[in-house]
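Q: My labmate handed me this sequence with no annotations at all. I'd like to see what the chain might look like in three dimensions before we decide whether it's worth expressing. Could you predict it?
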Amino acid sequence: MTNKVCVVTGVGPGTGSAIVRRFAQDYEVAMLARSEDRLADLATEVPNAHAYPCDVTDTDALMEVIARIRDELGPQSILVHNAVGGAFGSFLEIDPQVLRQNFEVNTMSLLYLSRALAPDMIEQGEGAIVVTGNTSAFRGSANFAGFAPTKAAQRILAEAMARDLGPKGVHVGYIAIDAVIDLEWTRKRMPDKSDEYFCKPSDIAEECWRIAHQPRSAWSFTSTIRPFGENWSLNQ
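A: Here is what I predict for the chain of 236 residues:
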């Protein structure tokens, strides 16, 4: 294939699928997620979307998938790391292994993916790595002890990558979603909230696209997005 290739991790029914739909308009999109059935359905529905079932915490399997994508679609020029591991609970309540697992999903998989994909981007002289984050990357709320430390580490890793890769022509951006995402389960959990309270997956996808295609003279690293009805829980 001659089209450019975008890799999207964490392709769930909300934000991940929306990102796939947006990038598939112009790229061959390699979709990574653990749910083989979901990916197969989306690959059938969305032209230029290709299913690669994979657990991003399984490093050997992840590297095999990246090699397959390169062989089948070509060198990857964009990575959107949307895979996320989360948990609620104070530091006294959580199982420490939950924090370890979330670190593998949120931070270590970003490291391995970027190490695998960045050399091709550097060789091409262009490319983008976009990471979807959230409020927890900037503050440690009491009940997010099993989650926030891993998102903060993820953001700092992305910043270190940006400083390294920027001069080599590869843009790295971090999107902090200061909002509740509009999903079926969040709507059920918060039935009293109006539409203005939620951030639409399709709008998050549009921001991922914008960051990935910023002109070189005006790259940004951190982008904070929120619906207009949000009370700015993240003071950025």
